[in-house]
Amino acid sequence: MVMKMKAFIASVVLLFAFGAVAQDYTLHVDESGQIIRDTFFFGPEKSKLMIIPFEPRLYRSHIDRQVGEYDGLNFQEIRGYFRLGLDNALSLATKDEYALVRMHADNADINRDLDYIYKSVGYQYRTMPKPPEPPKKGLAKFGDKINKEVQKQVKKLEEPEPAPGARIENGQVVSVPHKEERFMAISLINQDMFNYLTEKYGTGLYLFITQLDMMNAPDQDYTAFGSDNYEREIKIHFCIMTSDKKEVYAGAVKRRFSSRTNSIKKIIVENFPPMAEQIKMYLPLILSPENEKAAQVD
Fold first, then answer.
1. Number of helical H runs and strand E runs in the chain
2. pTM to 2 decimal places
3. Given its phi and psi angles, is residue 191 left (phi above 0), alpha (psi -120 to 50 degrees) or beta?
4. SS3 (DSSP) at 215
5. Rounded CA gap, 97 and 294, in Å?
6. What is the CATH number for 235?
7. HSE (CB half, 13 Å, CA atoms) of 125?
8. pLDDT, tens digit, 9 for 90 and up, residues 269-295
9. Which residues contact 195 (CB under 8 A, 6 or more apart)?
10. How many domains is the chain partitioned into structurally?
């Protein structure tokens, strides 16, 4: 085994020395870690961004009892305020760079179309994408490539781990948990959905909020729960797609806050705006004759 590994590492060094190995990135960041946003050109007929709120059934929460007692709200009201608050935060974060179509509206026609959207997509859990790394130069870049390739090959030599999920083995139900963090993505069921929406609303870019989690944060000392001073975690799942059915990005953003904050207004005001700004950085800029601000890209 040792001889095989030495031979392999030597061959990897040679491969990189001659540039034989390349990498592909979904997202790029600059040297400071800032996401480099793509630019898409859409004509005037589809130059808008549509924001689609999460389906009410895709809301998970550990905090409704405490928030409900503090503000005198029931479950439906709490979920509704979070859904509206998130939509407002996303709209405020994006309104200066995009012409918006908001599907969270008190309008019967828009509500019918929102229901049509929900019936046109499916949902699937995926492994969270890894955050893009700032570009490395010189020896650091060379060493990083070697290290990643070595780790990949070492993993191949290890005993394969059982696939996550539930199954029957030797007559017994065996459940293997997912070790990697996951998020809720969408799949397109109705292939005509984007044609309909683009023609009606003039939208070329779509931001789907696929799920909202308001949970107790993981990896905490259990004694913190006894003192009622622990951390909660907001997780916003989202997917960005274009009118030509291409997925631009899908993932989730997270933020923690104190268990002692139970005012729904304070939770929304202190957390949703910065999270909306995070999500905005994954949106490509739309270039169109009608959007002068979006066209002023460095």
1. 9, 14
2. 0.75
3. alpha
4. strand
5. 6
6. 3.40.50
7. 7
8. 999 999 999 999 999 988 865 555 544
9. 243
10. 1
